[in-house]
Model the fold of this input.
Amino acid sequence: SASRLNSLQKADGSWSWFAGMPGSRFVTTQIVEMLARLQVLAETQKEIGNIYRRGMNYLKEQVAKEVKAMKEAKKKGGKGLLPSEDALRYLYICSLDSDANPDKSTVDYLIKLLEKMPSDLTIYGKAKCALILHHFGKEEKAKEFMQSLMEYSLVNDEMGRFFDSPKAYYSWFS
Done:
C-alpha cells in the first residue's frame, strides 16, 4: 500500500534493501518504475504522487552524479563511456511520465551516448533504448535498435521468437 511504501522511504527519497541500510539506487529504480507504470495504467497518482516524486528526485540526483562522473572521466581520456542500466531505466521512467521534468542537459548527454548504439548493452538494455529514443524523438535510431534486437532473435515453431545470445542473460530482464 502507499502508506507502507511511504513508511519505508528515506528522507532523500530512496528506498533500501532492508530497514537500517542506506538507500539503494537499484531498489529505488525498481519501485519508481513500478509506480510510474501504475500511474500510467491505473491513474493512481493521488495516492502515490508524493512518494513517487520523492523517488524521482532521488533518481534524478543519482543520474546527474553519474553523468558528472562520466564527463570527468572523459576529460581524463576515458573512452567507451556508457550510461548504466539504472540510468537507462530512469530515462524509460521519464518516457512513461510526461510530468517527470528530467534535467535537459543530463538527458541530452545520455541520449547522444545512446545514439552511438553501444554494443555492450544487454537485450533488455537495447529494448529500453529503443523505447527511450522513440520517446525523445530519435525515430531512426529507435528503428536501428529494433533491427539490432531482431538480429539477435530466432524463430521456430516450437519456441516462437526467442533470443539465443550471450547478451540475453537468464533472468527476469531477458
Observations:
- Strands lie at 153-156, 160-163.
- Helices lie at 2-8, 25-42, 45-75, 85-96, 104-115, 123-135, 139-151.
